Amino acid sequence: MSSSSSSSSSSSSCWLALVEERPGDCLLCAAVVASDDGGDEGEDVGYLAVWDVQDAPVPGALRADPGAFSADGAAAWISLVLPAADMRPAFDDTTVQQARRVLLAGPPPAVITTLLADNSHFAGSLTARRGEDAPALLRDDPFRRVLPARLLCCAAGLIGDRPGPPGPTIERHGSAVPWPGGRF
Questions:
Q1: pTM for the complete prediction?
Q2: How far is 86 from 66, CA to CA, in rounded Å?
Q3: H or E element, residue 16
Q4: Which residue has the higher pLDDT, 180 or 123?
Q5: What's the rounded Cα separation, in Å, for the pair 159 and 112?
C-alpha cells in the first residue's frame, strides 16, 4: 500500500475483490457504482476491498499492485476488467502486451494494476482516472480491447495516485508480481 495507507506493508502484491457486502476484515474498502454514460448516478455494484494477507481472503480475490491503493485516495473513475476464469489469456499474450504498450503511450492514468490469479494468466486489470475527461478516457481503456470491462465510480478511500511505470519496457519482472508493481 502507499505510504498514506493504513498499512506499512512492503509486500509485492495485495488482494483485491469486488464484493456485495462491506467486509469487516479488509485493509481498505470503498463503495462502487456502475455508470455507462459517465454520469454521477448509477446502480450500486458493491464494494472494492483490499487485503494485505498471505492467502486469498474471499473467493474470486485477485492479486494486485499494493501501490495502487491508498486510504487517502480521492474518488475516481475506474475501468475494471474481470474475466471469467476460463477466459483468461496468458499474461504474455500479444493482445495483453499491446494493451500495456498503448496504455504507456497515452495520457497516464492515476493508477493501473493488472490482476493475477496465478503466475501466468492475465486475470484482469484496474485502470483509474480522475477529472472530467476520465469516463471518456476509460471507455478507451486498452485493456477493454482484450476483454470486456465495467465503467465504475469508486468512492474515496481506496484508489491512490501512482506515477506511471518506467518505459518503454513492458516485460514483466517476476511472474508472481502484478504489473507495474515491483522492481526491475
A1: 0.84
A2: 26
A3: strand 14-19
A4: 123
A5: 10
